[in-house]
Each structure stands twice: as C-alpha cells, then as structure tokens.
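Hello again, I could really use a second opinion on something today. I've been staring at a protein lately and its backbone has me curious. You're getting the sequence in one-letter code plus the fold written as tokens. I'd be grateful if you could look everything over and explain what you see. No rush at all, and the record is pasted right below:
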Amino acid sequence: MTFDCLTAPMEGADHRDIGGVQIDQARAGDCRVKRVIYPLGFRWSKDMKPLVGTDLCQHAHVGFLARGRIHIQYADGCTQEFAAPQTAAIEPGHDGWVVGSESAVLVEFDFERDTVSRLGMPADHRH
C-alpha cells in the first residue's frame, strides 16, 4: 500500500469521527483548518441528521475539494456539484452526499459560528 498524504494521520491535529465522517482540525490564527473525509455512500440526511437534529446541515463549508465528488441540494431544490480539484463554497441549509466510487476529501476553512459573516456568505441559500 502506498502512502496517501491526503488521508494520513495529521500530527498535532484534533481527530474526530462523526457519522462516519473523519475530521482532523488544527488552529491557524482565528481559523480552524479542517480535513474532512466523507466516506463512499455518505449522505448528510442519512448519516448526520439523526445526530444533529436539524432537517438540513446549517453549517457553511468553504474550502478545497482535493478528492472525489459531492452533490449539494438546498431546501428550494437548487443543486450544486463539486468535483476535485475544485474550490467549494456551500451555504447553510443543505443536504449533501458523496457521488461516484471514491471518498471525498475536503480541506475546509472554518471560523466556527462566524464562518458565514467572516467569509461574506449569505446566512442561507439564495438565488
């Protein structure tokens, strides 16, 4: 097996597994830099909704999709699809799932509760 730096353990990072998603994060100034590995077959409404208790993901995600494909659907039916290598800006109020035959790896920049305002994003999806 060859070494894969995208999925290898990150020295000095906090590691969590939530709903099958692997999250490694470290502080960088006021920001958290997170490597999020969404496994093949992951869907937010199936895997995270029971843990979080909201109908849709209410977190904004901004970063670089380094591997895989993810599909996003907002409450109004609007969709986005991201395929690596690509930047991603996902507004709160979405469902999301991995598409294709490999896990998705997102390198995300997160300001916790201030992500939306710090990055100038809308508080919810708008056309």
